[in-house]
């Protein structure tokens, strides 16, 4: 199934700890210590969650001296977001007959743009 990678990426984002990591990385590249400080997620949990995000292709790494910096893979995140096309374009205003949608996808969209 061609959608399986997108589903795995969405599952990765859906976890509260991983979502907070993605949220922290939306502010820019960070090393593990900076992510730990921003999220409050300690070791080894942080490393495990970063491994899941790497496997899903949502984060990239680069080495600078002894530190590894993580960043959002914006191309991959955009592809995953585009897989949610069935949600349609964000509305500029709410109609009285339309129920309010969850803000989860909208928050993810804001992170990758």
Automatic annotation (TrEMBL):
<keyword id="KW-0238">DNA-binding</keyword>
<feature type="region of interest" description="Disordered">
    <location>
        <begin position="91"/>
        <end position="113"/>
    </location>
</feature>
<dbReference type="InterPro" id="IPR001845">
    <property type="entry name" value="HTH_ArsR_DNA-bd_dom"/>
</dbReference>
<dbReference type="InterPro" id="IPR051011">
    <property type="entry name" value="Metal_resp_trans_reg"/>
</dbReference>
<dbReference type="InterPro" id="IPR036388">
    <property type="entry name" value="WH-like_DNA-bd_sf"/>
</dbReference>
<protein>
    <submittedName>
        <fullName>Metalloregulator ArsR/SmtB family transcription factor</fullName>
    </submittedName>
</protein>
<keyword id="KW-0805">Transcription regulation</keyword>
<feature type="domain" description="HTH arsR-type">
    <location>
        <begin position="1"/>
        <end position="92"/>
    </location>
</feature>
<dbReference type="InterPro" id="IPR011991">
    <property type="entry name" value="ArsR-like_HTH"/>
</dbReference>
<keyword id="KW-0804">Transcription</keyword>
<dbReference type="InterPro" id="IPR036390">
    <property type="entry name" value="WH_DNA-bd_sf"/>
</dbReference>
<dbReference type="GO" id="GO:0003700">
    <property type="term" value="F:DNA-binding transcription factor activity"/>
</dbReference>
<dbReference type="Pfam" id="PF01022">
    <property type="entry name" value="HTH_5"/>
</dbReference>
<dbReference type="GO" id="GO:0003677">
    <property type="term" value="F:DNA binding"/>
</dbReference>
């Amino acid at each position: 199934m061609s959608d399986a990678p997108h589903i795995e990426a969405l599952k990765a984002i859906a976890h509260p700890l991983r979502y907070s990591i993605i949220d922290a990385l939306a502010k820019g590249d960070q090393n593990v210590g900076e992510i730990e400080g921003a999220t409050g997620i300690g070791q080894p949990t942080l490393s495990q969650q970063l491994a899941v995000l790497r496997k899903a292709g949502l984060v990239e790494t680069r080495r600078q001296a002894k530190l590894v910096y993580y960043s959002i893979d914006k191309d991959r995140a955009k592809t995953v977001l585009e897989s949610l096309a069935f949600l349609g374009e964000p509305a500029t205003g709410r109609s009285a007959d339309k129920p309010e949608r969850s803000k989860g996808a909208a928050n993810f969209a804001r992170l990758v743009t």
